[in-house]
Amino acid sequence: MRKADILLGLQWGDEGKGKMVDFLTPKYDIIARFQGGPNAGHTLEFEGQKYVLRSIPSGIFQGGKINLIGNGVVLDPVLFRKEAEELAQSGHQLHDCLYISKKAHLILPTHRLLDQANEAAKGKAKIGTTGKGIGPTYTDKISRNGLRVGDILDRFEEKYALAHQRHMEMIYSLNEAAVAKGGTPVSLDGLESLEQEWMQAIDYLRQFRLIDSEHFVNKALAQDQTILCEGAQGSLLDVDFGSYPFVTSSNTICAGACTGLGIAPSRIGEVYGIFKAYCTRVGSGPFPTELFDETGKKIRDIGHEYGAVTGRERRCGWIDLVALRYTIMLNGVTQLLMMKSDVLDTFPVIKACTAYRINGELTRDFPFSIDENVEPVYEELPGWQTDLTHCTKQEELPQAFINYVNFLERELNTPIKIISVGPDREATIWRE
Ligand code: GDP
Ligand code: IMO
Ligand code: MG
Questions:
Q1: Closest ligand to the CA of 40
Q2: Ligand 1, closest atom to CA 44?
Q3: Count of C-beta atoms within a 10 Å radius of residue 110
Q4: Which residue, judged by its Cα, is nearest atom 16 of ligand 2?
């Protein structure tokens, strides 16, 4: 029986997953999202066009592939409709190539309000979520109160009314608490029209192939079809192993593909771990190698490090090999994909964090918490100071860059098989 391959982010997201899933798609029959929702923003560029995908898998542009939204995903029907309609307008019809799991959970308009209310209640300790209702939707799933895509096929209005009422009670009590603390309550203005739009989007969703995707996936593997599972977010945002509580609400690591698609662990094949030549993070939470100086600003400017979903500035810093070793371990990464190498082209010196000093002690193991006590220990390498964007094959890469890649491979004990030197699909180099 075939095994499914997985591509996932090893940092705090935005590693370039969309670009690489699209690049690898020709090798696969099925591309499947297994967790997350419209908090994701996956950017693809080819033939002078740029697309940002949120809930729809990144395999839709290569033709003839099945794209699947798995049970581990949370789906906002309104945002899904917008995304699908925009794609249809640009000539990409999805009705035949997109399947959706009946077990995927629905994001309700009130989930978004609850996301806002939860953030407001946290005050300064807020997570800095994308505001898409991700946390409250997964909370309902785990507390066994969620609504699933399959629910829209039978007596849905009744189920919706119950969920709505529950959420309103929660919002009222959160608002009362906010007011008591001198904070701002969440506004309910416009909720009715949002709900109408949402119900229309549910009708739109009914036009798609809503399937028992765990059977579909396993039959496909049994019939020797190839599957690439597309991660969203990054391993350091994983709800179990990430920088908790500053994480997302799903398992973003490899195991998330098992639960988020119904694939047994023994059926996992290649695990592509994707990382940037440096590191970024959006939202709050610890980030040991963050740069607050001109260098950080330079990385942000050259790398266009602004959120694809919220437009927020991404925090930038040097690559963190302690964190990467940890996420490679958690995911069982078999090969690495290194992205945005070109962003460091003009830097005379490149730094890489190889260990942490915590209360005077050196460690190479990722600790329980990466708070302000963690001091990164850097190794400095000479920059290549060459424009990599002109390189099309391995032989054209400058020696100083190859030295950097070899250094990373030694530190991470995993081969780097692909190097990306620009946002375009074509700006990608395979290494032998
Ligand atoms: P994802 O969420 O992991 O899919 O990543 P995003 O799309 O949010 O962010 C990655 C950004 O980097 C996008 O704007 C891509 O177009 C861009 N990108 C991807 N690979 C490269 C690269 O090798 N070089 C440069 N300069 N940009 C890249
Ligand atoms: P892609 O797939 C970067 C971050 C948010 C916030 C935290 C929790 O494009 O890599 P949530 O809305 O999920 O409850 O927010 O997670 N976050 C991401 N950061 N890229 C993403 O997705 C992200 N999805 C969520 O900024 O800190
Ligand atoms: Mg992104």
A1: 2
A2: 16
A3: 24
A4: 248
